[in-house]
Amino acid sequence: ASGATGGLDASKQAAAVAAAKKKVNVPVNTQDAIFKLPFKYGWKRELVYRANMEGNSKDKGEVYYITPQGKKLRTRNDIVAALHDDLTMDNFTFVKEPVGGNPDEETIRSAKSYGNPPRRSVAGIPGATSLDSSADLGKRVPKPKMPKGASPPPSSPYPKVGRLSPKSNPSSGVAAGGGGGTGVLTVSSRSNVFSGSTKGNENINSQDRAKPVGKNRKSVDESRKMASNLISGTNNKHLGTNDRLSGEGVLHATGGGIGGAGSHVGSSRNHHITASNGSARDPSNFLSEVSAGYQALMQIFDYLKVQELLRASSVCRMWNHVGNHQRFWRTVRMKNSYVKDWGGMIAKLRKNGTKHLDLRKVLNAGSNDEMWRSFIEHIGQAPEIETIDLCRCSSTVVGKLLRSNPNLRVVNALAIKNDPIDFVNFEHGKNLEELRLKSSAPISVDGDLHQLGALRNLKHLSLTSIAKLGATSIDALGSLVLLESLELGECTEIGANLAEILPKLGFLKRLRLEKGQENFDMFTVLDGIAKVATLQQLELINCDVKLGFDKHIVSCRNLTKLLLIPTYVSQSAATNQMILKGILKLHATLQLVVWVITEELLRVTELYIDTNVDDGGVPNKLGETIPILKPVPGSDEPSSVTYQTDVPDKVEIVPLTKLESILERRVPNTKVLILKIPFTNTWKQTMVDHL
Question: What Pfam families is this protein classified in (predicted)?
Fold first, then answer.
């Protein structure tokens, strides 16, 4: 008996232990104030419903707590480690229900869904259990069978509404076109923006839609009223501030059918899609995206050539409107383009308000003379053009152009082909401000330059290819009183004639002289430059710099910028000494000096060192050097030999590094650039490249 009693006690004890281990599910009151205590210390709570879940699923969401420092915690152990102040674990709950915090303290949202939306209940509204029947979502509702002999129900008078395509991107209004060619932007169709129903509610309400429209109007009104209370009720405070749970993005159905009205009540799938894309369904947003597409086209069309603009303009009305915008036609460049109808071309330029026409490297559809004849015949029909760059043509074309278009302000003809050049009709360009004439080879002039004297508004004149310009009468240049920049080439005969004209040009700021050799009187020209107080920039390109240069240039105190490219044919050492002396004497006024040394001089100097200097077989370690007559100006090394004042008789090989150090030490306030370029590139050097 005692054994039986002991066995009974053991079984009772085991049952008690099992009962103790069994988890007791005690209902939690999520509205208890104890769960709101963390909000007072800066904690936040986030309730996230799962996107896809079955109707009876217990795991319907996740609960996260966010610390005052912004760290998101999702387990009890994480919360225990972060507890502070008077908080305990009893103040936190992971029940998938709201605890009653305000929108700033508690966020309720649903996870991103690519299928069926989650099932959500609305707290605080009596009689409202859920916004959808998730058990029926995704299931195909069979069409009700009609009895034999029965007539089919009448079709709805309302048109079928387009469905949201799963491949469409409601947030993108512009799509890039592929194909391997030039990228073309197309504005995507946004007809689904104004859609009143979606695929979800179409399946759910298919049975209701089979009923005749206009029946049970009272039930329709009640359904609408119920939907309004569910979505925008004043007691719906637990939905948070998330747009996908608020009723702001709901697109109300405009139809009077039962299916259209019931779609907002019985289908949260429609509510989910509409709310998540609420901003995309706004008509004003559609217009803004069309505007963004228009602006994108404007940016892309900036890269199109003329012929590409014409092709793009024929795509559609929108592209035609963009392609004919004046910003694309303000400057028209015809490089690598054919023009078969100059009349149509000029009419297009006039219509689009072209200001600058660039004909350089244009392709000839026929003979060159015929092209220019047709061009001159029609160019007068575009009086708005102000700037023209001509390709290879004769000076006669330039004269006729100035006569037909007297409003031209800039004419550049840098490939004159006729010899001699003719200035007939040039007097018609009275509004001309810039004129550049150049040829690939020196050309002569027929007569003098008296026609240029009529160009009283001229501010920039460039004549760099007229052979023996100094032997021609250039007195007409003195009438150009507004001239600010003057470029003259082939200055072999220039001297006193230019020196007399320069003081008359009271606005002259820049003077460029090319090929001042043979009979070029450098010293007389420098004396004339010193009398022009406004002249600040002097460019001497391939000009002879002789002994005495430093004594005359020292009087040009008005110069602040100097570009020197001397000819290194003979007496290179004396030339370098004169230039160095001149720079040192103008150290108080010069701001920028560009001294160009040709690569040919560097090679000759290197050959001289290898031939004449006995270095015992040691390689030359001086680097690049140039010859300078002794004594080297600015050098601190004393000389042991007494030289004559004006005629030094010995040469010193000076490395370029030493020359740069002398200039840095003697002219610290002047920016000095020593360039090494081949002789063939000296004609292309300008001061603008180094400003």
Answer: F-box-like, MBD
Confidence check: pLDDT of 301 > 70:
yes
Say which residues have a Cβ less than 8 Å from residue 372's Cβ, sequence separation at least 6: 393, 394, 397
565 three-state secondary structure: strand
Residue linked to tokens 């603008």: 688
Q: Which of 464, 511, 467, 471 is nearest to 494 (CA)?
A: 471
Q: pLDDT value at position 145?
A: 61
Answer whether 564's CB lies under 8 Å from 595's CB: yes
Max Cα–Cα distance, the chain, nearest Å: 151
Evaluate if residue 95 carries a pLDDT over 80: yes
Alpha helices in 210-364 (DSSP H): 217-232, 258-266, 268-276, 283-301, 306-312, 317-323, 326-329, 342-351
> What DSSP state is assigned to residue 475?
G
d(CA 98, CA 122): 10
**Token code pair at residue 35:** 């769960």
Describe the chain by its helix, strand, coil percentages, rounded to 5. 35, 15, 50
Q: Give Cβ neighbours of residue 312 (< 8 Å, ≥ 6 apart).
A: 184, 301, 304, 319, 322, 323
Do 501 and 477 form a contact (C-beta atoms < 8 A)?
A: yes
List of residues 6+ apart from 562 with CB closer than 8 A: 537, 538, 539, 583, 586, 590, 592, 593, 594
Among 576, 675, 669, which Cα is nearest to 627's?
576
State how far the Cα of 478 lies from the Cα of 260, in Å rounded to an integer: 88
* 19 to 10, 11, 23: CA distances (angstroms): 14, 12, 8
Q: By the 8 A CB rule, do 264 and 253 touch?
A: yes
Query: What is the rounded CA–CA span in Å between residue 529 and residue 464?
Result: 19
Please calculate the CA angle 133-134-135 and round it to the nearest 5 degrees.
95
CA distances from 367 to 358, 374, 573 (A): 19, 11, 53
Q: List residues bridging with 434 in a β-sheet.
A: 410, 460
H helices present in 554-598, as ranges: 572-585
Tell me the backbone φ, ψ of residue 581, rounded to 5 degrees. -65, -45
Fold annotation for 33-134: Methyl-cpg-binding Protein 2; Chain A (3.30.890)
- Which residue in 578, 555, 588 sits closest to 670, CA to CA? 588
Where along the chain do the CATH 3.30.890.10 domains lie?
33-134
The tens digit of pLDDT for each residue in 441-486 reads 899 988 888 999 999 999 999 999 999 888 888 999 999 999 999 9
Please state the rounded mean pLDDT for residues 363-367.
Answer: 83
Least Cα distance to 487 among 507, 459, 506, 468 occurs for: 459
What integer pLDDT is reported at residue 521 of this predicted model?
A: 94
> Parallel, antiparallel, or unpaired: how do β-strands 625-629 and 651-655 relate?
antiparallel
Q: Is the pLDDT of residue 543 over 70?
A: yes
Q: Comparing C-alpha atoms, which of 576, 668, 657, 669 is closest to residue 624?
A: 657
Most confident listed range (93-107, 250-264, 639-653): 93-107
Residue 195 is predicted with a pLDDT of 33
Q: What pLDDT sits at residue 236?
A: 42
Q: What is the pTM of this model?
A: 0.59
What average pLDDT does the structure give for the chain? 76
pLDDT reported for residue 418 = 86
Over residues 587-596, the pLDDT tens digits come to 999 999 999 9
DSSP string, 154-190: PPPSSPPPPPPPTT--TT-SEEEE-SSSS-EEEEPP-
The pLDDT tens digits of the residues spanning 200-222 come to: 443 434 344 444 444 444 444 55
DSSP assigned state of 218: H
